[in-house]
Specification:
- The protein is an alpha/beta fold and 222 residues long.
- The chain contains seven helices and eleven strands.
- The longest helix has 13 residues.
Length: 222
Amino acid sequence: MAGGSVANTIRGLSSGFGISSGIIGACGDDEQGQLFVHNMNSNGVDLSRLRKKKGHTAQCVCLVDALGNRTMRPCLSNAVKVQAEELTKEDFKGSKWLVLRYAILNLEVIQAAILLAKQEGLLVSLDLASFEMVRNFKQPLLKLLESGNIDLCFANEDEATELLRGEQNADPVTAVEFLAKSCQWAVVTLGPNGCIAKHGNEVCKLYFTPDFHFFLYGVQLV
């Protein structure tokens, strides 16, 4: 199945909400590349900006335990990828949002994409990817956040903890406050307990009921 946090988001927006979405990237000319194209096509994702290259498509193994905890183990060593110099303004023209995943191996591409996206008036969303990525490459991440070019940032509890490691408080509320200093919208996801989000002076918590309905609680001015 086509995956990765960005691909999952784009596919969900397209098939689940009917929002026009496309993907910028590269896939190989192998079986996995064909599966990726088929899966994204069948969910209505625009692939006109997807580069097909000779080589291997990136793969990732998702391991989930009985409690629902999961870890992702990607294999990117010899996978094809889009290069920063390949990106053009046409890749972003007509779009409203650029959705990115933080990855140190793609930092040059991320920076180039943000520059072009901002020139075209797009808003930028960043997913912090994993607690290991935040832990091992925190300074480039902070520099990216402090640039003021990230409009929306998502972090899970583990990533938020790593982001605030060494601080007196490293709880989700403190994390969302920290992210909101650099971004218009900040969200810290809490697994089955929903999420907490901040925009401007408003903070809200989203809870899920056992039957997977959700409700908002605690909207407040701070």
